[in-house]
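stage 2 :: seqdesign
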């Protein structure tokens, strides 16, 4: 479904991604792992089109999209839940979700909003509350729900576990895992390798802008180099 070929990206003279190639098949959950500053967020931002690719190709269903505008990529089925959640704090839960559907012209938005409330019941209970009244975990759920309202085929999640308690992390990752049954493909960026590989089919490890390991979730968890560097064992 998604193929990235020789992708490079930079911030001025700072190279953030160097010759990155990876693939995500339809229906997979793929984890993108690595330490602080490895380039994970840049890769997601380059995929959603809010940061330019300097070199390389991004193919969605075989068609190049690396020059497409972000809204065109949303129309093609790519949605991102950004780092730090970035919900609109002064808007209600309901209005935050509605903003996720801003490109849609169909009549199923209310039904899909109810589906998000079914996935995250607490959002339904708090639908009239402003987003700033939500806990960190609830705001993360809202950011994922907002992305789902664009009806994505490929969902990009940037560090959903950041700053959350283990119980909430398990709950959110359980729900992300269940998106597979809805036919949604997921690329999830995480520093919490164990949690991400717990639900992922495969993973890639980035180090200073390059992919240094790749394999099935099991193979990565069993790889001594990955364990030493990232699992603290
Ligand atoms: P984190 O988990 O901290 O978000 P990351 O793996 O997502 O890390 P990126 O945020 O993609 O990494 O950063 C990759 C590199 O690009 C780092 O060296 C970082 O300092 C640099 N970088 C990121 N954003 C900017 C920016 N706006 N201006 C300049 N350099 C940046």
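stage 2 :: out
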């Amino acid at each position: 479904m998604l193929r990235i070929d020789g992708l490079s990206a930079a911030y001025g003279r700072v190279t953030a991604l160097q010759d990155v190639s990876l693939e995500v098949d339809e229906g997979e959950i793929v984890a993108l792992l690595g330490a602080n500053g490895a380039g994970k967020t840049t890769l997601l931002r380059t995929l959603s089109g809010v940061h330019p690719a300097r070199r390389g190709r991004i193919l969605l269903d075989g068609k190049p999209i690396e020059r497409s505008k972000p809204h065109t990529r949303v129309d093609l089925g790519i949605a991102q839940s950004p780092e730090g959640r970035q919900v609109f704090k002064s808007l209600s839960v309901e209005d935050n979700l509605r903003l996720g559907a801003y490109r849609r012209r169909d009549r199923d938005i209310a039904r899909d909003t109810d589906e998000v409330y079914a996935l995250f019941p607490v959002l339904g209970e708090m639908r009239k509350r402003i987003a700033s009244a939500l806990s960190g975990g609830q705001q993360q759920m809202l950011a994922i729900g907002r992305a789902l309202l664009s009806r994505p085929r490929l969902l990009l999640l940037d560090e959903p576990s950041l700053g959350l308690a283990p119980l909430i992390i398990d709950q959110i990752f359980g729900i992300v895992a269940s998106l597979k049954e809805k036919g949604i493909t997921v690329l999830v960026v995480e520093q919490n390798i164990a949690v991400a590989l717990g639900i992922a089919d495969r993973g890639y490890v980035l180090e200073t802008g390059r992919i240094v390991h790749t394999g099935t979730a099991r193979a990565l968890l069993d790889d001594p180099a990955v364990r030493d560097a990232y699992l603290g064992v």
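stage 3 :: structure notes
- The mean pLDDT is 94.
- Residues 11, 14, 16, 34, 36-42, 83, 191 surround adenosine-5'-triphosphate (CB under 6 Å).
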